[in-house]
Design a protein that fits this description.
This protein has a domain of 82 residues: SH3 type barrels (Roll), CATH 2.30.30. The protein is built from three helices and seven strands, in the order ααβαββββββ. Strands 2-1-7-3-4-5-6 form a seven-stranded mixed sheet.
Length: 121
């Protein structure tokens, strides 16, 4: 059930308690202008898939380009190749990235729901 409240606390509660089939919608990512122009897409965002090439737009890893290695729907985060942080022992661990901070620069738009995305005539 989607919430209709505008209150931030209720929006946060909805996202925190949302079932998994709705949490997928929280992991949408912007499509770069160049890719939209090349494919003639109208939509600005799409669901991110493992293997998509993304560019980080904000944060300490800004302008980093890499492939998505894992999408975590339960936490609404994704993991990108080469984005790592060192823990206290000095071991490198993959760092989670928020979907709103990345954009797709390459991906497979030939099958699945992406193939059915509306395009310019």
């Amino acid at each position: 059930m989607m919430t209709t409240s505008a209150q931030p606390r209720k929006q946060r509660k909805f996202r925190y308690e949302a079932p998994m089939h709705l949490r997928r919608k929280f992991v949408h990512v912007h499509i770069s202008k160049e890719l939209r122009a090349k494919l003639g897409l109208i939509a600005r965002s799409t669901l991110v898939h493992k293997g998509d090439k993304v560019k980080i737009r904000t944060g300490e890893k800004k302008k980093h380009v890499g492939n998505v290695t894992r999408v975590d729907y339960s936490r609404s985060r994704l993991y990108v190749e080469g984005v790592v942080a060192k823990n206290a022992k000095g071991v490198e661990k993959p760092m989670a990235v928020q979907p709103s901070n990345v954009e797709i620069i390459e991906g497979d738009f030939t099958k699945g729901i992406r193939a059915k995305m509306p395009r310019k005539k």
